[in-house]
Design goal:
CATH class: Alpha Beta
Number of domains: 1
Order of helices and strands: EEHEHEHEEH
Number of strands: 6
Structural class: alpha/beta
Helix content: 25-40%
Radius of gyration: 17 Å
CATH architecture: 3-Layer(aba) Sandwich
Strand content: 15-25%
Number of helices: 4
CATH topology: Rossmann fold
Largest sheet: 6 strands, mixed
Strand order of the largest sheet: 1-3-2-4-5-6
Distance between the termini: 65 Å
Amino acid sequence: MPALPRMTSAAVPLAWVPFRDSEQCAHSVLYVDDDWQNLAEWCATLEGAGYCVTATDSPAAALRSFAHGSFDAVVLNFHLPYVTSGLLAQVIRTLRRDIPLLLVSDCLEDEDLSPWDRRLSEGVDADQFLASLHSAIEHGRRARIAATIASSLPPVPLH
C-alpha cells in the first residue's frame, strides 16, 4: 500500500493532487471522501489503473477543484462533512450536466437515485469499481458526442 498523503492542519481542507502528468492519464477523476485511509487506497488503485486523481476530504475543496479542473468523472462517498453527498452531486451536476457521478456508500437503499449515474456499495472490489467507473465515463463520452452532433444539425421543419 502506498504511503498516505501528507496531512496538513485540520482547519485547512486536505487535498491530494495527481503526481502524474495529465497527458499520461487515460482519464481524470475527482474523488471526495472524508476517510483518508479509503481515499489513499482508492487513489492508489485508480492511479495504478492509469487514471489521474485529484482527491479531497472537503466538499468546499471539491467544488474549487471541480471549477478549476477538467474531470471525466466524480466519485463521492455518501458521508461527507458539512453537506450531504447528494447536495454536492446536485451542485456539480448544475455546473456540468454531462459529468458522470458515482456514489460509494454503505447506505445505498436510503440515498436518492436522481443525481447518480452509478451507485456502488462501500465494500466493492477494485475490478468492479474500475469497470463501473470506465462504463460511466464511456457513457458520458458518447452522450457528449451525440449532443455535439445534434446541436450541429439544422432544424427539421415539422409541417
